[in-house]
From TrEMBL:
<dbReference type="InterPro" id="IPR012748">
    <property type="entry name" value="Rieske-like_NirD"/>
</dbReference>
<keyword id="KW-0560">Oxidoreductase</keyword>
<protein>
    <submittedName>
        <fullName>Nitrite reductase small subunit NirD</fullName>
    </submittedName>
</protein>
<keyword id="KW-0479">Metal-binding</keyword>
<dbReference type="GO" id="GO:0042128">
    <property type="term" value="P:nitrate assimilation"/>
</dbReference>
<keyword id="KW-0534">Nitrate assimilation</keyword>
<dbReference type="InterPro" id="IPR036922">
    <property type="entry name" value="Rieske_2Fe-2S_sf"/>
</dbReference>
<dbReference type="GO" id="GO:0051537">
    <property type="term" value="F:2 iron, 2 sulfur cluster binding"/>
</dbReference>
<keyword id="KW-0001">2Fe-2S</keyword>
<dbReference type="GO" id="GO:0016705">
    <property type="term" value="F:oxidoreductase activity, acting on paired donors, with incorporation or reduction of molecular oxygen"/>
</dbReference>
<keyword id="KW-0408">Iron</keyword>
<dbReference type="InterPro" id="IPR017881">
    <property type="entry name" value="NirD"/>
</dbReference>
<dbReference type="GO" id="GO:0004497">
    <property type="term" value="F:monooxygenase activity"/>
</dbReference>
<dbReference type="InterPro" id="IPR017941">
    <property type="entry name" value="Rieske_2Fe-2S"/>
</dbReference>
<dbReference type="GO" id="GO:0008942">
    <property type="term" value="F:nitrite reductase [NAD(P)H] activity"/>
</dbReference>
<dbReference type="GO" id="GO:0046872">
    <property type="term" value="F:metal ion binding"/>
</dbReference>
<feature type="domain" description="Rieske">
    <location>
        <begin position="41"/>
        <end position="138"/>
    </location>
</feature>
């Protein structure tokens, strides 16, 4: 069983019966969990995430994350705040891929952010936070 979190850290606190979101098949049922300051917490059912679309999630510390599920079934969580405008809008951005890596483009100024690393593809000095994410099977 693959227990790597979407950030790529092997093991990353995954318990038995938990698969990495990045390894989850597109039709699998399960609960998406994000790793926060107090550990893993559930955010939504995997089936609630539409491939290619984002969803905003309120974090326990009051911040926001943007969740994305790609067409292959991988799930990613990055900060929802656009660092160029300060607006909480990345969950509403357009998704795509560059050099085989998934990204989201801000709906405001269109800067692209790598969903796996958080790096801005258009300004190497800028990044958004990346959160470990997993899918817990029922």
């Amino acid at each position: 069983m693959d227990t790597r979190a979407a950030t790529g850290a092997a093991g990353a606190g995954c318990a038995p019966g938990v698969r990495s979101a990045a390894g989850a098949p597109g039709t699998a049922a399960g609960v998406v969990e994000v790793y926060g300051p107090d550990g893993w917490f559930p955010v939504c059912a995997l089936t609630a995430l539409t491939p290619g679309r984002g969803a905003a999630v309120l974090l326990p510390d009051g911040g926001q994350a943007a969740l994305f599920r790609d067409r292959a079934g991988a799930v990613y969580a990055i900060g929802n705040r656009d660092p160029f405008t300060g607006a909480q809008v990345l969950s509403r951005g357009l998704t795509g891929s560059a050099a085989g890596r998934p990204y989201v483009a801000s709906p405001l100024l269109k800067q692209r952010f790598d969903l796996a690393s958080g790096a801005c593809l258009d300004d190497p000095g800028v990044a958004v936070p990346v959160y470990a994410v997993r899918v817990r099977e029922p």
